[in-house]
Write a structure and sequence with these properties.
mainly beta, UDP N-Acetylglucosamine Acyltransferase, domain 1, 4-stranded mixed β-sheet, 10 strands, Trimer_LpxA-like_sf, transferase, Trans_hexapeptide_repeat, acyltransferase activity, acyltransferase
């Protein structure tokens, strides 16, 4: 078992999602013809929040200001400044853009 740093999280490079139905083999040493993998870039834009335990499927774009609730399964790209929850993730409401004002104030304060 690999230790997990619970204080931080990172988006890894070359991340892939593979089925675990038992119809394919998933070990990285197994030739591709025996696996059913989907590999695609996941885009996470500015001011996006992803809750703990959420799964973002390959090819999805989390547009600016998206908020994903914990334990959600995101299978489709999101709308900007929206809040999503559930399995599959569904939009429940618009997200406030108030933090853009705070960002502007902060950047002014630090001279950017």
């Amino acid at each position: 078992m690999h230790p997990i740093d619970r204080d931080t999280s990172r988006v890894g490079l070359k991340v892939c999602a593979a089925g675990a139905s038992g119809k394919t083999m998933t070990n990285p040493n197994i030739p591709k013809k025996y696996k059913n993998e989907t590999k695609a870039t996941i885009y996470i834009r500015r001011h996006t929040i992803v809750g703990t335990g959420s799964i973002i499927m390959p090819g999805v774009e989390l547009r600016e200001g998206t908020s994903i609730g914990a334990m959600s399964l995101v299978r489709k790209s999101t709308e900007e400044w929206s809040i999503y929850v559930g399995n599959p993730a569904k939009k429940i409401k618009d997200r406030s853009r108030e933090l853009l004002k705070l960002e502007k104030e902060f950047l002014k304060e630090i001279g950017k």
